[in-house]
Each structure stands twice: as C-alpha cells, then as structure tokens.
C-alpha cells in the first residue's frame, strides 16, 4: 500500500463537474493499493498518516500531526501509484489491485483514519474520473510504502 501525502492549505475533488469533497488546511492522501495488501497494511499505514508530524508547532517546527493542527483529510484512491516503468515507456499496472480487492481496503483505510483522528475523512469517488485540486503547503509531500516501512 502506497500513500502520497501532501500537506495542503486547501484541496478538493470534483467528479462530473460537482465538488464531492473539499477541505481547508490538512492532508490530501493519494492511496495506491496492490494485490498483496491486507488489513495489516491498512492499520499500519493509517496510523502512520494520522500521526505524521508535518505541521508546524507554535515555534515553527514540523512537530504536530494533522489532528493536533486541527486539519482535515481527503483520501483519493489512485491505482497508478503502483505503475511499473521498468520495461519500455508505457506503464504497467499489474501490481495494482483489482477493484474487488482495492475498494474494500480503501474504505477500511478511510474508516481507520476516521477512528485515528476522530474526524470525518473526505473521499473521492472510487473508480471515477476525478479532478483533484490542491494548494500544497510548504511544499510538503511525503511518500510512504507499507512494504518499505522506513
């Protein structure tokens, strides 16, 4: 399971000309799920995202989590995060989980984040053609992979 986490001053997700999620300051999480991912990956990664200290404390140091900073979260499913470009120029998505695997794990991840933060989590619409808008704050962008656990 891979997550691209962006600290944002605002973000939104649009589907068919309609805004389906919008937040002010917080995190935009692009979530890629691969066939090998399990509930264990969901639990580990959601805990990591919720506790990631990338917001400034009163002294200006990146020392607060999204919850401590009073931020919001949007999670967008993005199968392209598991693209392989090893061979040729056309990406392969063979590692990306099929919707029957990835959709339940995506929903579990969002629910786990809601439990971790005690706040609702905005979502894109799974499998839809989405337009994601954001203002990256910092910019701060972090990549976390549950297989690497660095």
How would you describe the overall organization of this protein?
This protein is an alpha/beta fold and 150 residues long. The protein has one domain (2-145): D-tyrosyl-tRNA(Tyr) deacylase (D-tyrosyl-trna(Tyr) Deacylase, Chain: A). The chain contains two helices and eight strands, in the order E-E-E-H-E-E-E-H-E-E. It has helices spanning 39-51, 99-117; strands at residues 2-15, 18-23, 26-32, 55-56, 62-64, 72-77, 122-123, 130-145. The strands form two sheets. Strands 1, 2, 3, 6, 7 and 8 form a six-stranded mixed β-sheet that branches. The chain has a two-stranded antiparallel ribbon with strand order 4-5. Strand 1 (2-15) and strand 2 (18-23) form a beta hairpin.
Outline of this structure?
The protein has two helices and eight strands, in the order βββαβββαββ.
List the helices and strands and how they pair.
Layout (H helix, E strand, L loop, with lengths): L1 E14 L2 E6 L2 E7 L6 H13 L3 E2 L5 E3 L7 E6 L21 H19 L4 E2 L6 E16 L5
Parallel strand pairs: 3-6, 6-7
Antiparallel strand pairs: 1-2, 1-3, 1-8, 4-5
Helix pairs in contact: 1-2
Mean pLDDT: 95
Helix count equals 2
* Fraction of residues in H or I helices: 10-25%
Indicate the low-confidence ranges by residue numbers: none
Instruction: Give the H and E element order.
Output: EEEHEEEHEE
Instruction: Report the sheet-strand fraction.
Output: 35-45%
Descriptors for this entry?
150 residues; globular; 2 helices; single chain; 21% helix; six-stranded mixed β-sheet; alpha/beta; D-tyrosyl-trna(Tyr) Deacylase, Chain: A
């Amino acid at each position: 399971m891979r997550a691209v986490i962006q600290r944002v001053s605002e973000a939104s997700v649009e589907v068919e000309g309609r805004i389906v999620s919008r937040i002010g300051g917080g995190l935009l999480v692009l979530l890629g799920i691969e066939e090998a991912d399990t509930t264990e990956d969901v639990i580990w990664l959601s805990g990591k995202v919720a506790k990631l200290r990338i917001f400034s404390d009163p002294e200006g140091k990146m020392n607060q989590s999204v919850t401590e900073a009073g931020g919001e979260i949007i999670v967008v499913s993005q199968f392209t995060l598991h693209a392989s470009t090893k061979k040729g120029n056309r990406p392969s998505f063979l590692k990306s989980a099929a919707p029957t695997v990835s959709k339940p794990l995506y929903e579990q991840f969002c629910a786990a984040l809601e439990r971790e933060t005690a706040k609702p989590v905005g979502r894109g619409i799974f499998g839809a053609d989405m337009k994601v808008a954001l203002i990256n704050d910092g910019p701060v962008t972090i990549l976390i992979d549950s297989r690497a656990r660095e």
